[in-house]
Amino acid sequence: MRTKLAKSGRLGNAGTHWALSALYQNEGTIPGTDATGLPTTDFSAGSGAATVAIAQAFGRNVSLGLAGKYVMDALGPGHTGSGVTFDAGVSLQFGALGFGIAAQNVGGRMTYESQAFAFPESWGAGASFTHAASGLTVACDVNVPRDSYKNVRGGVEWNWRQHVALRAGYRSEVGAPPTESLSGPTFGTGMGAHGLWLDYGYLVSGESGGQHRIAITLRSSALHGTDPFGQSSMPRDFDSHRPMGPPAPKSGK
Length: 253
Known about the structure:
There is one protein chain. The chain is an all-beta fold. The chain has 1 helix and 15 strands, in the order E-E-E-E-E-E-E-E-E-E-E-E-E-E-E-H. The protein has a 15-stranded antiparallel β-sheet that branches. Strand 4 and strand 5 form a beta hairpin. The radius of gyration is 26 Å and the shape is globular.
């Protein structure tokens, strides 16, 4: 089971945003065995990460982001590791076209007792095109992990008035065998209103069948600031300089 919590905000009017997030994945109980395959004591395994991120916008076209992550991994009694690593990214927006470059897990090492290992560093770049009038967005990116296969991902989304979204995509692990579980098509949808948004995705992958993914997003400011009847557009008070009632008859001959 995977659990994720996140909170974000803005610092003043300088275009600086911050975010905090925590992710924990519990792998459940795993049967223990010794070197000969005989059963031993069962144990539980899990991993988690806490992230602090900050992003700065430079005008309307350029944004820069940086994040630091603390990662922990529990593989059973006496086999717990931890470490710190960093992410960074740049995004460029020119009208309907968007471009981005990102680096993940750069620097730092994961330490298990007396052994240390480098994080799985990855570099990626992508591009997107959005047609605002129709709500259609097309995107594609390429990722180059240091310890795994290169992958290419593409997708399309149709969004109706920010209330309903339909999505489809495909991920290909370049050079991987046909049974690679991460390759395959994806389908999904999203819907929401007044600060509540629900996302659902289905991944068809290799010989492992399918994966269901669900995410719920809550925006507290929108939850408490909705105005379904448009009352905020009404005047706060009457204009004392404007006479009320029918106009007075003009005097004269």
